[in-house]
Amino acid sequence: LVMSCSETHNLTNLRMTRGQSTAALLEVMRLAEASRVPVNVSLSCSFGCPMEGEVRVASVLDHAATFIDAGARGVTLCDTTGMAYPRQVAALCRQLRTRFAQSMLTLHVHNTRGMGLANVLAALETGVDRFDASLGGLGGCPYAPGATGNVCTEDLAHMLELQGLHTGVDLGALLDC
Questions:
Q1: Which end of the chain is more exposed for a tag (fewer CB within 10 A), N or C?
Q2: What is the rounded CA–CA span in Å between residue 138 and residue 63?
Q3: pLDDT over threshold 90, residue 33
C-alpha cells in the first residue's frame, strides 16, 4: 500500500489528501487482516518532496506509527525522487528501527543524484531489513522532473555480496536478465 508524506505529492500522485489516503489504507488493512494477508505500507517522499522541499521527520514517524499500530507488518521509507543523502537516511532509519523494533523496515531508493548505493549502506548500518531495486535501474517519478530510476538491482546485489552479505541472488543470471 502506498501514500505520500507530502500533501502536495499525495494530491498529485494519488488525487487524495493524506487524510483520505490514510482512511482508505486503513480500510484496506482491515480487509487484509480479515483474510490474514500481511500488509506493508510504503511512505513516499519520506526524505523530501520536489514540490514542498523538506518533509518533517515527525510526519514520517507519525504516518509509520498509524499503520504499524493498525497492524502493518512493516513500512517502506521511499526516497521517491532521489533527494536523500546517507546521513539523513541513517538518522530516519535509526529512529524507525528504535521506535518500531519488531516491524519490518524497507528502504526504497532512487539514484537521481548518484546516492542510491551510499544510502543503502547507511541504512544497512541501522538494521534495515529489505531494499527495493529494479533491473537496470528502471523507474522514476513522473511528478519529479529529472528524477531517475531506482537503484539498480545488479549493482545492489553485487555490492551486498562484496560486503559479505549473502543475497541468494545469482548475479550472472541477473545480468542475463
A1: C
A2: 27
A3: yes
**In the structure grid, which three cell numbers stand for residue 70, read together?**
493498525
Q: pLDDT of 136-156, one tens digit each?
A: 888 877 666 677 788 999 999
Residue of 49, 141, 152, 177 marked active site: 141
Please give the share of the chain, as a percent, with pLDDT higher than 90: 82
- Is the pTM of the predicted complex or chain greater than 0.85? yes
Whether residue 141 lies in the annotated active site? yes
The string of DSSP codes covering the chain is: -EEESSHHHHHHHHSS-HHHHHHHHHHHHHHHHHTT---EEEEETTT-BTTTB---HHHHHHHHHHHHHTT-SEEEEEETTS---HHHHHHHHHHHHHHTTTSEEEEEEB-TTS-HHHHHHHHHTTT--EEE-BGGG----TTSTT---BPBHHHHHHHHHHTT------HHHHHH-
* pLDDT the model gives residue 93: 98
C-alpha cell at 173: 543470471
